[in-house]
Model the fold of this input.
Amino acid sequence: MHATCTTKALLKFALVILLSGCAATSPRIDQRFTELAQQLWQAEQRLQQTEPGQLTDMSAEALAQRQQQRLGWQRKLEQFDVSALSEQNRINHAILSYRLADKIDEYRFGAHLMPLTSESGFHSSLGFLAQRSALRSLTDYQNYIRQLAAIPRYMQQQTDWMRQGLATGMTQPKAVLAGFEQSIISYVAADPTQSVFFQPFRTQPAYISEQEWLQLQADAKQQIRLAVNPAYQAFYQFMLDEYLPGARDTIAASALPNGAAYYQNRLQHYTTLPLTPAEVHQIGLDEVKRIRAEMQQVISELGFNGSFADFIRFLRTDPQFYPKTADELMRYAAFLSKKADAELPKLFKTLPRTPYGVVPVPAEIAPKYTTGRYSGPSRDDQAGFYWVNTYRLDRRPLYEMEALTLHEAVPGHHLQVALAREQADLPEYRRSFYTSAFGEGWGLYSEYLGLEMGFYQDPYSNFGRLTYEMWRAARLVVDTGMHSMGWSRQQAIDFMAGNTALSMHNVTTEIDRYISWPAQALSYKLGEITIKRLRAEAEQQLGERFDVREFHDQVLVNGSLPLPILEQQLRRYISSAQQRASAQ
Done:
């Protein structure tokens, strides 16, 4: 199995790093690897990119060709003696191998037959086409219009894969798709000027003449009417008439073709650890027990007269905890973001220059979307964005907002992603690399850092922090439970609802997300546990010489890393700090 091979490769790397003091690197092999790595990355970029005015070719021939190319690159990587490489090139080798294995495994297991989750899919990804396009010339605008014209072919190719998935049993579960069709039809605009795809044509740039601009607007409206709207309407009908009725009744990844191996593969990909579902499940149960005791302590300190369930019911139903307007929620999120900004120098030596904004989750996807998310810049002339879901305000408790903001904005995802992008000494494939175990683990660790940043002074907000930590611990239980241990959807909902203060809307939305995106939810807690454990080791071994700002720089300096690599890097840092102290 590739999953096992991938994890073994990461552990082998960790051992190589550990023993590297005894190994001699070879400049010649190092140079050969650097050249291959650059060739490999450029080739992968060509596979991901399209010709101007085109969309990705999702035909069977194109996908099979990409798979064969990646298998060839994988074989070339495996030929290198990793121990002969420099330390940074060992990391480069491990990350390139990890990225390649993921693409190869996804194709091998047929993930392209399910190009959607309960939250979104290729149709909603197209909705961000304008944001991803660098529109700086007349030709750029013309190419964007050609992309609009290419949408029907692209969506038909995706629909064909989904139809094949129906025939082979590789579908999303019926239980998580209720109302999904609304996320498709919302992109159909009777007035083309109101379409999300018309957004680039609402403000005329100075370098385009009036005549050219009028022609561009006319062409864009024509493509929205003749290409975009019919393509989305056809996909909407396909969902209603074929996919929703034909989707599987089971929810477990293990029920898919070769499902048990697929889930083990996804578990090891997202956690980067050699764990089994049973081991992850037990870690989750242990964490739930610990956090539940801390939550009960807050309830007792508040003097609440009632059971844990009574307190959760109080939090879910009392209007004092919920914003009255979307503007109130957005203003509070922006206030918390700026408050967090001011605390960063106390905990970090290095801060990013890339700014971030606070915006609502796009209305087209908000009903089935998670409570908040970070959207990183795709180009150097863009900011990052902290998305806040303003749909159903009576399900967006304010006591969770401190933890959410620290996770999605700073010191969470924006800080980590922006710093990685700005590491000029790292190759591009390192700066753009993201693995959930590191990134989401850092996000959850950032929620914990709020205690050191002066947040959670209100006991309800502190309970919100704990309910967010419980949320991530419960994921270990329900994700493995549903995908590997026969849990029902309702059993998972009941477990999550009974242990967190999440609103029931959020609980069901999240459970459906875990069902449709197997194992991704496991990365948060396991990553956070690793970072916290390594910090405790550094504090214990360095004593008074421990510098939290230096520790955080060391965690982030190499960008996103698989956890075994992060562990070895931080242990090398601890050892070096001890040696420096002994020499003084």
Remarks:
- Residues 15-22 have pLDDT under 50 and may be disordered.
- Strands lie at 356-360, 372-375, 384-388.
